[in-house]
Amino acid sequence: KKSLKILYFGNSFTQDSVGYMPFILKGLDKNIELTVGIAYTGGASLQRHCANILNQAISDVSPSNYTYYNKYTNGAEKWISSSNVSAATILADEEWDVVTFQQSSDLAASEFNTYIAPYIYKIEHYLSSYFHTKPIKTGWLLTQSRGNDSESRLSNYNGVAVTARKVMELTSCAFLIPYGTAVQNLRSI
After folding, report:
1. Considering the entire predicted model, what is its pTM?
2. Strand locations in 86-128 (E)
3. For residue 138, what is the enclosing H or E element?
4. Are 35 and 73 in contact (CB under 8 A)?
């Protein structure tokens, strides 16, 4: 069997976007053993994930722990969660093939050089050192937009999409999960 181990660092939108994925994928290919973990902190920004992964304060953000949905593996009937788990423990839990990130929805449409670049570059550098014996792929979750009405949500979505495009062009992220695009498309029906 081929093995694929995916770890998501995120918040409730990450949980929303991938929570059912393992149950959907389990019937697709019996030759793939899929393992999925979610490191979850409500409302977490990329800056928060950077502080947690590096285990050091970044500006005014101190490291904190996650709720770890650990792990869905083929055949499991439900997620098992553990509270107060460090990023280091989560990273060491498996030999992850893929690690994904997202920016919090309130900052996802913000200026790339201020709210994304300083943190994603530090995270990528750390992960390339941490997984030095086995290269991993990183990915970006395009989060859903925010707003009180359809016009403000569309405007915010356009900013989120521009930021995601920059992430794909200017970082080593190998793929994009277009969760926010799917939500935006459903909103327009």
Report:
1. 0.91
2. 98-101
3. strand 137-141
4. yes
Q: How many residues belong to the chain? A: 189
| Rounded Cα gap, residues 143 and 156, in angstroms | 11
pLDDT digits (tens, 9 = 90+) for 1-39: 788 899 999 998 898 888 887 777 766 777 878 888 999
Measured on CA atoms in the order 38, 118, 148, 66, is the torsion positive or negative? Answer: positive
Contacts of 110 (CB under 8 A, 6+ apart): 103, 116, 159, 163
Q: What is the pLDDT of residues 152-184, one digit of tens each?
A: 999 999 999 999 999 999 999 999 999 999 999
> What is the DSSP track for 1-63?
-EEEEEEEEE-HHHHHHHTTHHHHHTTT-TTEEEEEEEEE-TT--HHHHHHHHHTS-BTTB--
SS3 of the chain: helix, strand, coil, percent, to 5: 40, 25, 35
Pairing of strands 66-73, 32-40: antiparallel
How is residue 117 written in tokens?
A: 């670049």
Question: How far is Cα 111 from Cα 44, in angstroms, rounded to an integer?
Answer: 17
Quote the pLDDT of residue 132.
Answer: 80
